[in-house]
Amino acid sequence: MARPLMISLFTVFAGCLLAGNAEAHDRLSLRADPAPAIVEASPVLAPFQHVRFCLRYPADCKTDPAENDRVELSDQTLELLNRVNRSVNGAITPTLKTYGTNIEDRWTIAPSRGDCNDYAVTKRHELIADGLPARVLRLSVVKTAAGIGHLVLVVATTKGDLVLDNLTDAIRPWQRTGYEWLKIQSAADARFWYAIKPARAGTVASQADRNLRLASR
Question: What is the pLDDT of residue 27?
Fold first, then answer.
């Protein structure tokens, strides 16, 4: 158990600093067919800092089984996602946290300075406050192309699973991020997490994913 736990801790503690908006002028096409969704595999340990987060913010770790597990990707919903993604990216100054050595280095909602974890939980908190079902808003641990652990927010929509990320102001389909997907918060119970089943070969090149493309404004 020690090795998986060390990997789990590393993936949420390392990296995830530099915010940017290189793709801020891109948007999603609403004319797309539904794209392949993230598929859960076996249960895994929740990130330790998420356990601490739930003790600190219990209301953000509640799940209503009566809620829908997908939200319609309408113009209004996409506008909301873009607004929250950009506002949170601009409101938090990126900084390094050294988890385990400083009691203040916890996942925090709406801090003035923070890392990827703070961006992700703040976006989730604000979208719930704006009326989106908690079940459609799922934190996810990924690994960047450089091998750095990173936390993002996944929004389950009728057009596929979309990613809100502090590294870009663009809303992207999960298949288009270039990340290695490791684990995701359960839709059924926000306190639990699952490993992510690797996408089948050719999934990214599927017709549904090509339709759900990034288009210039």
Answer: 54
Q: For residue 210, what are the CA distances in angstroms to 136, 168, 190?
A: 23, 21, 31
User: Quick one: which of 196, 64, 84 has its CA closest to 129?
Assistant: 84
DSSP 8-state class, residue 56:
H
> What Rg, from alpha-carbon coordinates, does the chain have?
16
Angle at 136 between CA 92 and CA 81, to 5 degrees: 45
Q: Which two structure tokens, joined as six digits, stand for 82?
A: 């873009």
Q: Where does the chain show beta strands of DSSP type E?
A: 26-28, 40-44, 93-94, 113-114, 137-143, 149-157, 160-165, 168-173, 180-185, 193-196, 214-216
- Encoded tokens for 53: 């987060």
CB 186 within 8 A of CB 194: yes
Q: Which two tokens stand for residue 146?
A: 């450089």
pLDDT in tens, 112-124: 999 999 999 999 9
